[in-house]
What does this fold into?
Amino acid sequence: DASVGNVTGSNSVNVFLGLGLPWMIASLFWSCKSAHSHDKWDALYQHDPDLWRLGPPGQRHPAFVVKAGGLVFSVLVFSCFAVICISILFARRRYFGGELGGPQVAKRLTSAGLVFLWFLYILLSSLKVKGVL
It folds into this structure.
C-alpha cells in the first residue's frame, strides 16, 4: 500500500514540477519579450481556431501556448490502467490474502499482466503522438 502511494506521489511531483516549472518560466519569458519579436508567434497562433480564448483572430496578444496534443489521451489511458492495476491488487488481496505472494501461477500471471499494461500504455501513447490513433 505504501509503495503505491509513494509511486503516485512521486509521479505527481514529477508532473507538477516537470511541466509546471518550465511552463511558468516560458510564460514569464513570453511576457518579457519585445513587441516586434512576435512575428513567428503571429504566423503560428494569430488565426488558430483552437485559441479562441486568447481573443478574436488578428487581435490576440502573444502568450505562451502549449497545445494539448497527446497529453489528454495519455492521462486518460494512464487513469484507466491505474484503475485496472488497483482492481488487480484488490482481487489478489481477496483471493490470495495479500497483494504479494500466493500461488506461483498467480504471481507470474499478475506480473505478466502488469508488465503488459505498461508496454501497452507506452505503445498507445506513442501511436497517439505519431498520429496513428
Observations:
- The longest helix spans residues 2-32.
- The mean pLDDT is 82.
- The chain is about 70% helix and 0% strand.
- The CA atoms of residues 15 and 76 lie 15 Å apart.
